[in-house]
Amino acid sequence: MNDNSPDASCPCGSGRPARGCCRFPLGQPADPDVPAEVRQALARQEFEDLAHVQRFLDDFMARYNRQPREEFHGLSPEQVRRLIYFPFESPELVQITEMAPAPEQVPMLRIFQVLVEAVGDQGLKHTARGNLPRKVCREMALARLGEAGYREATRFGGINTELDYDEGHATRVLAELAGLVRKYRGRFVLTRKCRGLLERGGAAAAWPLLFETYVRKFNWAYRDGYPDLPFIQQAWAFSLYLLVRHGTAWRLDEFYSGHFLRAFPALLKEVRDEPYRSAEDTVRRCYATRTLARFACFLGLAESERVETGGILGARRVRALPLLHELVRFNVTAPLHEPPATVM
Q: pTM, whole model, 2 decimals?
């Protein structure tokens, strides 16, 4: 889905390979992409030849990339690069535990549990289009929303097909990508892998696999109409780092989208201004939808609610849930300078 190769161009926009970049590129002294600190250091040196210049730059940038940066909230560029490209291979920086949370803690797991029970031992006949039957989709929504929430969600239109219930559709696709459910002779059936997990710990035992599949294989852009912007998904671990550091208090979703853009401003180059919406507004809305609502909240790592700002109801505020701190552990000792909490 996404090009996660460290030999691809770094998404920071420098045009350099990701292997040696993540925001702070090497270059000639006159290159405007070279940080001011590099230009100042070069101005204080005398060099015998270009090879000497290159050795100096290599050494300086190696040290520079190991220093914590304010825009990365205490992480160094090298640590951010590891979070973006190798989160599961960097236990010295972040650890994703193998715990199995209770389904009631995780909206996606509640929906998955309904799917598993509906498929059962005999399988579940799918529709002519290969989707879940209407009855199962409604049961998923009820398990996720409760009766009051279901009535509110369907007051302007019922759930008649799988595509009418986005979270149910996403969970079914995710289960197939994870190799837990497959189609066989006109029916959904549970795979041997899924049966083994269910025997060990019920639907909750599938959580680590579903989590990894959601961040690595499931295409987040598939669920909305925003530009592709694959880097938003690729930087999921950095976003969780922001939530771990700042999520103890309620904060508007624009708090997180703003800090994400401050860390990776080159994202704005991938989107054009529209007559009705600026590029920045598009990226902010996309980030809030994909990362906060449909990742962190959907997977039980955060919660959100609508708030009234400036007399307009529509903004949302977000807060981390205990599961986030149980599931994801960052080994970073950067000082925490908390900005004022959002007061509503």
A: 0.82
